[in-house]
Amino acid sequence: MAKIGDIELGEFPLLLAPMEDVSDPPFRALCKENGADLMYTEFISSEGLIRDAAKSVKKLDIFEYERPIGIQIFGNDIESMRQATEVTTQANPDIIDINYGCPVKKVACKGSGAGILQDIPKMVKMTAEIVKSTHLPVTVKTRLGWDESTKYIVEVAERLQDVGIQAISIHGRTRKQMYKGEADWTLIGEVKNNPRMHIPVFGNGDVDTPEKALENKNRYGVDGVMIGRASIGYPWIFNEIKHFMATGEHLAPPTIEQRINVAKRHLEMSIKWKGEKLGIVEMRRHYANYFKGIPHLKEFRIKLVTETNPEILFQTLDEIATALSY
Where in the sequence of the chain do the CATH 1.10.1200.80 domains occur? Predict the structure, then answer.
């Protein structure tokens, strides 16, 4: 049984990764319905929270049906992160997560996200301050290291545990790799199998089929897996993995009708949540996966990612249903 603090997550929990402009409330609602055991918000800038920036504050919004839910924060200044932790605690999530993994240049090259992997003592000190600043359990999401020559994750995980984190999620790449190549789970396994580790260790990276989830569980002994890119436009993946692990059989994939209904609900919630313009634009990254592997959809897909009128978008989704039902 994986536990973070007093939060019981079941035998082998599946976590929704915190993804910028993806892990928003509309998408989280769909993932929760489809079997996600623990979800994290998009990352929130500590500076933005302290300055009360509207975009950052809006990301603090969480809903009862999402629980257990973690709010993820990032930043490179210890005092700002401490203050942001206090603000985040007031939003009453179940968990506060620290982003030490984001590889994007504008984050990492300012010493935030994966950038802090170049300064492990600061990483440990910041984590200790955050743990002291909240009564909530603190978790960390990070990578193997900054580059090939600095993969210190086994030692780093132990040091973070020593200052009080209650779970760690590790993406099996270095910052330098970004999302290229294959995720290397061997070091994630080493963290998990370090006899001094007693907190849950979750693996992340390239889990895009039920088989991979099961293989990583069996081979590396992780306490659960975190799923990121494979869930975009495909919230069904959580239940598919659970079903496969329980029965050894594949769940039937969603029908065209189910895909269209969920895509329509997603678009509707996205517009309601973010406003028409942003809601439409940020939904675009999901369409390719909603209709992955379905032939003869190219012109519809092009329309979905270029059209700005919501009525035409809903109409296009209906047209796909009609075109495919013949």
Answer: 256-324
